[in-house]
Request: fold
Amino acid sequence: MNQRRKLDRHQQRILDSPQHAEYYLNIAKIYQKQNKFEAALRAYEKASEVSANSAEISRKVAEFYQFLGKRSLQQQKWHEAIAYFEEAFHLNPALESPDFYFNLGNLLIDLKQTETAITCYQKALKNNPNSAETYLNLGIVYRQIGRDREAELNYRQAIAIAPRFGSAYFSLGNLLRDRQQHEAAIACYLETLQIDPDFEAAYLNLSYFYKDLGKLGESFDFALHLLPENLLKQRCYPDRPLSVIPDRANPGDRPQFPCQMLHPAGVIKFNKPRNGDRQFHPYFKWKEYLYSASFIAQFDRAIAWGSKHLSAILTCDRTLVLPLSQGSSELIALSEKLPEPVELNGTIAFLSVRGGQTYFHWMSDLLGRFELLRAAGIDWQSIDRFIVNSTHLPYQQESLSLLGIDNDRLVESRLYPHVQTERLIAPSLPGDPGLMTPRTCEFLRELFLRHARVSETVKNIGDRLYISREQASYRRVVNEGETIAYLSQFGFVKVSLESLSFREQVGLFSQARAIVAPHGAGLTNLVFCEPETRVIEIFSPQAISINYWAIANLRHLQYYYLMGKDLSEFYRDRPQQRRRYPHPLYEDICVDLEALKEAIERADRV
Reply:
């Protein structure tokens, strides 16, 4: 029987039994299949009218209203959609999830439908008046349309409901900053960092703030994700005492608490870069570097914090152990607004390091701590959990797997930054942040070179490499196309290390004979190079670092450096805007092709 005949039959039945709701539902379904939604709606409403007390009929009609609401959303008919959803929820409250209007408001914000989003957030608050997140989002919308008074009220209401809501303090700080209420804005940003010490935008805004105030020292600290100690004490905790075990005065000193000394302080000897310049940059005039002695300590009932920008070890009486902490660790000891620590039973090895989400610090500082565990005679299998920064990146997963560490024994501090441990093993850094030690260098080579993978991809790349940073979010080469075209004349092949597995990166650098690269973490792989490999590292003029010169000296490589050109000159006659960064270390690089040619020719003559 076709749809027309079915429809006629049901309509005839209605004439005979006009109070029979099922006939109206059947007609509604036919119209719905034919996409005649207005006619279907009239039939559904008639069914509801003739059977007002039927829960089953109300449920079916409510589901149709919900269907119409979703359809209107797809058509971007926002007010119509909300009206349909309201009718559906009125008929069947079970269809309304607690977060429906909140999520719909978020969707509308993304689609720039601010006024309708406000309506949704207000409806969400009627259902859940204690939702701090809804108040925050409502405040953000009011801010976008210039209703700052309402925005402030909503931010403050979010904070009143959830005093540990860092995003609400941050948004309030932005509003106060734009009102020129400097002191109040700074207080809000500092409050944000007491709740979330990794809140990137709070550091950034404080850096800009203090730069505008002419306080360049504080601005520099904030750009490096550090809180100036005087600011922390004066503004955040002026009356709260801080118990600390002080850091060592000299690199070779023994810490002032029970520990096992492992390796003495040592010296890295620096050979001059091969540039041939009479006047080296001051950083490249170093003749040697004294790195710190290493040790390992064990504590009962210790507290540990690990995150991107800082780490801290506190004893059971909350004494901060500075020789085992990094960054503004005083914040962890003083703040009362951090998430509660997670209890970890058994023996825990704390290996997270400041910057451990980046390849260099992962390899040099974090994996170097495994060598200290081994040097202390600690069987890795006797450790119940290893705390590391994260395990979600491919190189992290692969390197830990090659170390023989099972996933079920790993705790990611990015997910669980604050822990209370039954028994804590805490190795020091292998040396000092930013400089790899000879022992770490040999440890990494011993562990990973035997697993190197020289795949067909790696073989096809060859042994003359240009390491690209095109996938990085900062310190990119602005004239990379010209640079690659120029280097290809000398047999260099562009490589994006992100496209290779960890073992392929090890294999690639182990077979390399010449490497050109902008300053970046990929050069950590110089540790796998053979002696006499030629390396040309390219810097932005304001962002010089000796990290990879140090590795080149450890591996007896032929090292050259090259200063990039002034970016202002590059952008002078170009339509695109120069990207601005909060710190010179992030600046993009413009390669001086003439200087590059001279460096390549000098290297090839050796």
About this structure: The chain has a mean pLDDT of 88.
